[in-house]
Write a structure and sequence with these properties.
The structure is a single chain. The protein is of the alpha+beta class and 98 residues long. It has one domain: YggU-like (Conserved Hypothetical Protein Mth637, Chain: A, 2-Layer Sandwich), CATH 3.30.1200.10. It contains 2 helices and 6 strands; from the N terminus they run E-E-E-E-H-E-E-H.
Length: 98
Amino acid sequence: MEVRDVSRRAAEGIEIDIIVSPNSGRQGTEGTDEWRRRLIIRVRSPPSDGKANKEVEEFMKNITGCPCEIIRGHRNRQKTVMVLGDPDKIIRSLEEAQ
């Protein structure tokens, strides 16, 4: 499964479905969850006070070089992130990060 399989083009960029693993020993992508059809993101922060969400947004911004915002799933491990910018460039950046 590729990043294209867990994302949708939007007018202003791309929506990416992710599953977050908080309190991880490292930060980074971990491939895709084929059953849930989501990109797996590991973060070091705990899932309290929005810390893991902030780390996800910052991590995605660092990988893609584009503004990012969680638009669904703020209190859930399964989230949708909106990344503003050229969808093809964003997908390439995420595939290179895996």
